[in-house]
């Protein structure tokens, strides 16, 4: 059995102390980070090595994007994909010794206007998801886990108000449909919602809220998926809401799941 966590850290160098705190308190076997905002050579991996995370694969980019997979279990680099040809460090994959492949994905946020004709970033987001879909059609994933900040809250209970959010980027029908197509193409199961099928569930709260906890206008943007052949091994999903209240936090919090698979 192993535990995996995903967290958009919003600068791994700025928040290295929060990462070490999470590793010390929760000790997931694997932690996937997004929005590291750093070249790989400047990510503070030595701090995480000291806590037992000896195996790390990452892709970096100065000031933007960046993804990393850190593990207490042996992993090997399984490559990356530049979806939609954006030239962004938004995906990296690693393989466990049991053959399970872990994909760490950071889907573009998409800007503020949900119209690709008015907003290039929104078009890039849709193209990224379309390319994900096409890659899963071309090569059906097996024994795989996909985690990350997918920047879409697909279900009505994944946002604080379905009615208010339908025209807001991250919960528009066109984004939800593009995400569903990518999910279906890979035969992915949303492990978090398999475990917690009902009720409001958030992993992100805006910095703009003066009191994020009291306002509680959250969105579930961070996800853990698994292919159908191993999805039933996933369980014990949880979202660490309290992390949003740590000192100088990311606007995202970690999402966890356990997998009953031999390592």
TL;DR?
This protein is α+β, with helices and mostly antiparallel strands. It has 7 helices and 12 strands. Its cofactor is Mg(2+); Mn(2+).
Overview of the structural elements:
Belongs to the DNA repair enzymes AP/ExoA family. The record marks 222 as: Important for catalytic activity. Keywords: Hydrolase, Magnesium, Manganese, Metal-binding. This is Exodeoxyribonuclease III. The structure is a single chain. The chain is built from 7 helices and 12 strands. The protein is an alpha+beta fold. Strands 3-4-2-1-12-11 form a 6-stranded mixed sheet. The chain has a 6-stranded mixed sheet with strand order 5-6-7-8-10-9. Helix 3 (120-138) runs parallel beside helix 5 (173-186). The radius of gyration is 17 Å and the shape is globular.
Looking at this protein, list some descriptive labels.
alpha+beta, six-stranded mixed beta sheet, 7 helices, about 25% helix, globular, Endo/exonuclease/phosphatase
- Topology order in helix (H) and strand (E) letters: EHEHEEEEEHEHHEHHEEE
pLDDT averaged over residues: 98
Strand residues, percent: 15-25%
- The rounded Rg comes to 17 Å
Topology, pairings included?
Blueprint: E1 2-8, H1 16-26, E2 30-34, H2 45-49, E3 55-59, E4 67-71, E5 75-77, E6 91-96, E7 101-106, H3 120-138, E8 144-149, H4 162-165, H5 173-186, E9 188-190, H6 191-195, H7 212-215, E10 222-227, E11 234-239, E12 255-259
Parallel strand pairs: 1-2, 7-8
Antiparallel strand pairs: 1-12, 2-4, 3-4, 5-6, 6-7, 8-10, 9-10, 11-12
Helix pairs in contact: 3-5
Active site: 106, 149, 252
Protein name: Exodeoxyribonuclease III
Cofactor: Mg(2+); Mn(2+)
């Amino acid at each position: 059995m192993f535990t995996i966590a995903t967290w958009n850290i919003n600068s791994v160098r700025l928040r290295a102390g929060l990462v070490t705190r999470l590793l010390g308190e929760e000790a997931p076997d694997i932690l996937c980070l997004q929005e590291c905002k750093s070249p790989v050579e400047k990510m503070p991996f030595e701090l995480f090595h000291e806590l037992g995370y000896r195996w790390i694969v990452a892709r970096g980019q100065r000031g933007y994007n960046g993804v990393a997979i850190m593990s207490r279990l042996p992993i090997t680099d399984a490559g990356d994909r530049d979806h939609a040809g954006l030239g962004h460090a938004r995906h990296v994959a690693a393989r466990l010794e049991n053959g399970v492949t872990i994909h760490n994905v950071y889907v573009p946020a998409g800007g503020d206007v949900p119209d690709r004709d008015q907003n290039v970033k929104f078009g890039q987001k849709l193209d990224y998801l379309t390319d994900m879909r096409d890659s899963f059609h071309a090569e059906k994933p097996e024994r795989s886990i996909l985690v990350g900040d997918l920047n879409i809250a697909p279900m009505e209970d994944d946002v604080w108000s379905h009615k208010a959010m339908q025209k807001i980027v991250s919960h528009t029908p066109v984004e939800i449909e593009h995400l569903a197509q990518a999910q279906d193409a890979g035969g992915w199961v949303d492990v978090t919602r398999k475990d917690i099928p009902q009720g409001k569930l958030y992993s992100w709260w805006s910095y703009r809220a003066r009191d994020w906890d009291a306002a509680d206008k959250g969105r579930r943007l961070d996800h853990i998926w698994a292919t159908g052949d191993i999805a039933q091994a996933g369980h014990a999903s949880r979202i660490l809401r309290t992390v949003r209240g740590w000192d100088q936090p990311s606007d995202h919090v970690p999402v966890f799941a356990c997998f009953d698979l031999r390592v």
